[in-house]
Design goal:
Elements: H1 11-26, H2 31-46, H3 59-97
Helix pairs in contact: 1-2
Length: about 100
């Protein structure tokens, strides 16, 4: 069996690992290796054996999400300006070659 207790995993994570393990066994991988790979895959996809926290309704979270979206939009628009300047610089250099 893979190292560590599986008690902290959700039922969904346990089902995922079981299905992945069966898939590996079907391909001819040993059961010990299949189990280790299955749990490694679940850990990679879900971030490990974490139970979901209780949902909290708070107005602060939505405000934080909105501000992060604005930051992302600002970064994107800043990136576009940089690429435009690169294009104009490349046009200048090509005109010098001629």
């Amino acid at each position: 069996m893979a190292r560590g207790s599986k008690a902290s995993y959700t039922n969904k994570q346990k089902r995922q690992a079981s299905k992945i393990e069966k898939s590996y066994k079907k391909r001819g991988v040993s059961s010990k290796t299949a189990e280790a790979r299955a749990w490694a895959t679940v850990n990679k996809e879900t971030g490990g054996g974490k139970k979901r926290a209780a949902k909290k309704s708070s107005g602060r979270k939505s405000a934080a999400k909105k501000s992060s979206g604005r930051k992302t939009a600002a970064k994107k628009s800043g990136g576009r300006k940089k690429t435009a300047s690169k294009k104009s610089a490349s046009k200048k250099s090509s005109s010098r070659r001629r």
